[in-house]
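Review form for a predicted model. The reviewer records the input and the model, then writes brief findings.
Reviewer: anonymous (R2)
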Amino acid sequence: MRTPFLFPHDSIGGLKDLRDGQWSELTEAVANLPETHKDSLAFSLMMIRICGCLRCTNYKASLGCTICSQRAVRNSKAPDAALLRLFHRAQEEVSAFLANREEKLRQAA
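Model under review:
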């Protein structure tokens, strides 16, 4: 059994039906991407922040990531538009990180 350290990609599918419209479309699209795709990484980063994975307690960990993330999304008072903004911000951060990493690798070569 593999225990995730942070929000796992395979928990994304369980979030699809929690909200309608753009949230459902986003989760479906990202769930079908490889876990190493930059949009998958951005979605995971967003969920790590929403769920508080860096402060995960034994209680939350015992629920499992899928249940915890479902509760976090279901209990969020944020409208879909706000969640989508969080995703886009995470996309920007992931893209900036990857670009910086590539630049450092080029300089080291």
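Findings: The two ends are 39 Å apart (CA to CA).
Further findings: Helices lie at 21-31, 38-51, 58-63, 65-75, 80-108.
Recommendation: see findings above.
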